[in-house]
Design goal:
6 strands, 2 domains, alpha+beta, Beta-Lactamase, 11 helices
Length: 271
């Protein structure tokens, strides 16, 4: 092939080096070439220092090295912010765990079962700084029937507590349990409702009817506990702050409070 014939070849066939081609070789080809040759700017350091790009926060031009330094500093700033947020969340979680232990210890120290409901409510308000709290129990033993926590509740409340798979948090839209917390109208803007249930191991086998095959499939468990037989009360927390208990908040710690309250208050339940 003569030199004249060689020069007639398209650029993409004659060479792969973008520094020697023109025409159809576009930005995508340049990006691909640089990705395939990471040592390009090491071999052309003077070229790297001479490239100018727009400043991200102004109209003046800066070198490519300066632009890369700015990007790295921004990434470091974001990572530092995330690190601070993680530390703050960890400290908050540690504080809540300590409060849970303190509250559980107070309940466990009560030798008189009749005092447990009021202590549970008073201490959850004091330790967790919750403005309003109340508890209602059904299926209580006869000797506890005169307690304030054993006041009759509506069938809708029982059905609501039975249907709850996890604590509910959200705005007060006229829930009956909100009336247990305050006499003033509109005093409770947000609330959390925690169903109280017996632990599966503490429920007598004869009180647990065998589930059907379809119930086993739907529940995803081999031996699901029937909520209608295990649910025996509702712990309600309320606040005049509409954002204190919002629908998007996590309920993991509230679920632990429900577990501890259920264990402590189960001593009042009829056997």
């Amino acid at each position: 092939m003569t030199a004249q014939q060689s020069s007639a070849l398209p650029a993409s066939e004659s060479t792969a080096d973008p520094t020697h081609v023109t025409g159809r070789f576009g930005p995508a080809d340049v990006a691909r070439y640089l990705a395939e040759h990471p040592d390009f700017f090491e071999q052309h350091a003077d070229l790297l220092a001479g490239i100018s790009v727009p400043h991200p926060q102004g109209e003046q031009a800066i070198s490519l090295v300066e632009r890369q330094a700015l990007l790295l500093r921004e990434r470091i700033r974001v990572l530092e912010a995330r690190h601070i947020a993680l530390l703050r969340n960890g400290e908050d979680n540690d504080r809540i765990v300590e409060q849970l232990v303190q509250w559980a210890s107070t309940l466990a120290a009560q030798s008189d079962p009749a005092r447990v409901p009021q202590v549970a409510v008073d201490e959850v308000r004091r330790i967790f700084q919750i403005p309003h709290a109340a508890v209602r129990l059904w299926q209580v033993a006869p000797q506890f029937a005169q307690l304030a926590c054993a006041q009759a509740v509506g069938d809708d409340v029982v059905r609501l507590a039975t249907s709850m798979a996890a604590p509910f948090c959200g705005s007060n839209v006229g829930f009956e349990p909100a009336l247990w917390l305050a006499a003033e109208d509109n005093a409770i803007q947000s609330l959390a409702m925690l169903p109280l249930r017996m632990a599966p191991s503490s429920i007598a086998p004869e009180s647990m009817p065998l589930p059907s095959d379809s119930e086993r499939v739907e529940s995803g468990r081999a031996d699901p506990v029937n909520p209608a037989h295990s649910t025996f009360g509702l712990l309600v927390l309320g606040s005049p702050d509409k954002d204190r208990f919002h629908i998007t908040m996590g309920t993991a710690f509230l679920a632990r409070i429900a577990d501890l309250a259920s264990a402590a208050l189960s001593r009042l339940r009829a056997r």
